Each structure stands twice: as structure tokens, then as C-alpha cells.
Amino acid sequence: MRTIKELDKNELEAILLEFYNQFETGFDFEEFLKPFLEAIGLSEVEVTKKTGDGGIDLKAVKNGLVELNGNDVVKYKVQAKRYKPGKSIAPEKIDALRGTLLTNEKGLFITTGHVSKKAKEDALLKDEHRPVIVLDGLDLISILIDKGIGFSYKPVFSAEALNEFSNNNIMANEKELPDIQKDIIYKNITSNDIRARIISVPTSIVEKIENNQEKHSLKVKVNGTKEYDASFNPTRKFISGVTELLKDFGILKEDKTFEEKRIGWSTDGSKIELSI
């Protein structure tokens, strides 16, 4: 897995300002988003601004399983706002995008401005049939860094990183798992998880947890020994309150670097077991 230097807010804001200044107009920003959306997994991306399509700036789809003959394709309508970094976006502007969505379409609101955490959550959960995903300026920069878009790096060989890659992928500790961990699911702790100080829970684990219809506290045991109190959010499929856990197991380091890591998951319904 990659070792990534975690930038502080001032560093991210400085990069965001440089990024913002690369686009002279809102339409320049929309044109950039076409290859950007393709890079994050969408297809059939179309810039629609010049057609006057109800304020929608781009359209895209998320391809489904070949075996389902395209019946599970997800359609996205995208609104792009080139706003000065730090400028807050009114929730009404996000709601206006929702108003253009048909049932089971998704909205994607992308801006170089600022959107509060609560506004992002409200946009996603306000209408389950017409959710709007919000990416603000700092979200954009984080994705660009993760994808290596717009950044140049001087490669530095690290024997430690090479060994870490091998160890994480062969999962040598699988042979030493406690007996309780029989049905193991493997899922990476991603850089986005670490930045948000959460850990995304595999869907199959969520389905097995008791009271998985409401938020509640949950015990998380790591490597069959150390136990932590965490908060479980079944709607968003993550556990929070895990900063100490991330630090204890070297995923989040004191020098602000962090490492994506592959971990094993199991549950008896009342608590989560992790193998790191």
C-alpha cells in the first residue's frame, strides 16, 4: 500500500487556490470535469451547458454488471460551480439540482467553494430516491492527489515501503487469526477513510450486525486482543471514533503520514473483529 503524506488544511487550501486559478471561466471548469469524472469511474460523460439543459452542466452514467444487461446502470446529473475557494454554498443551490432528478437518478454537485459537513450529509440523505453527492474544493483536491491528477512526484525508493507492500498483500498473519474469526471478509482502509477518521464497513458485515437499522455504540476488537469503543453508522456503513485505533496500529502516524491497509473483518453480530 502507498504511504501518503497528510497535508494540513493550510497546505490543501493553497493547492486549491492554484487549482481554482487554472480555470478562467466556469465553462473551463466544466470541460475539465469531463476527463475527471471518467478518471473516477463514470462513463458516457457529456458536457451539456451549451444545450441549456435545465441548469445541468454534465451528464454521466455508472456502468452496471454485464450480466444484468445494463439494468443496473446509474444515471448522474452533474452541476459544476467554479466559486472562489472558501465561499460557502447555500443548501438551496444543492436542492435545485435535486429538483432536476428523476426517481433513481443521482446528482453530483461539484464546486471549488466550501460545503459544510452537515450540508453534504443532508444532500445525500434528504431523499433516498434522489440523492445528491457533494464534492467541494477540498474534496476535489484530495481526490486529485489520490489519483495523481495534476501532481508531479519525484520517485524515492523505500525498502520499508516495498516490504510493507509485500506484507500487506500476502496477509501472513492470516494463519494466526483467533478462532472467532472464521468467515473473514477483506476490505481496505482507504486514504479517504483515514482522512475522515472513519473505517468503512463491508456490506456483508453490516448485514450481520444486530440493530443495524440505527446508529449505536459498538465494540471493535483488533487481532483478538485489544478492544475499542466505536460508533456504528449502518446507513453510511462506517464506524467512527477510531483515531486511537488507527494510531495504535501504525495506519495513522505521528508525522501525519498514513498508509492504506488491507484488513480482515468478521462479526458475531454484537461486535466487530478486525485483523490488521
Low-pLDDT stretches are: 171-182
Major sheet size, sense and barrel closure: 7 strands, mixed
Second CATH tier, the architecture of the largest domain: 3-Layer(aba) Sandwich
Span of the ends, CA to CA: 13 Å
Q: Averaged pLDDT, please?
A: 87
Summarize the structure.
The chain has 276 residues and is of the alpha+beta class. Helix content is 31%, strand content 26%.
Description:
The protein has two domains: 3-147, Trna Endonuclease, Chain: A, domain 1 (3-Layer(aba) Sandwich); 173-275, At1g16640 B3 domain (Beta Barrel). The protein is of the alpha+beta class. Helix 1 packs across helix 5 (137-147). It has helices at 9-21, 26-39, 91-98, 117-125, 137-147, 159-170, 191-196, 203-208, 243-248, and strands spanning 3-5, 43-47, 58-62, 74-81, 106-111, 132-135, 185-189, 198-200, 216-222, 226-233, 238-240, 257-259, 261-267, 271-275. It is globular, with a radius of gyration of 21 Å. The strands form three sheets. The protein has a seven-stranded mixed beta sheet. A five-stranded mixed beta sheet has the order 2-3-4-5-6, with helices on both faces. A two-stranded antiparallel sheet has the order 1-12.
What are its keywords?
31% helix; alpha+beta; 5-stranded mixed sheet; 2 domains; At1g16640 B3 domain; Trna Endonuclease, Chain: A, domain 1; 9 helices; 276 residues; 7-stranded mixed sheet
Write the layout of secondary structure elements.
Layout: E1 3-5, H1 9-21, H2 26-39, E2 43-47, E3 58-62, E4 74-81, H3 91-98, E5 106-111, H4 117-125, E6 132-135, H5 137-147, H6 159-170, E7 185-189, H7 191-196, E8 198-200, H8 203-208, E9 216-222, E10 226-233, E11 238-240, H9 243-248, E12 257-259, E13 261-267, E14 271-275
Parallel strand pairs: 4-5, 5-6, 9-14
Antiparallel strand pairs: 1-12, 2-3, 3-4, 7-13, 8-11, 9-10, 10-11, 13-14
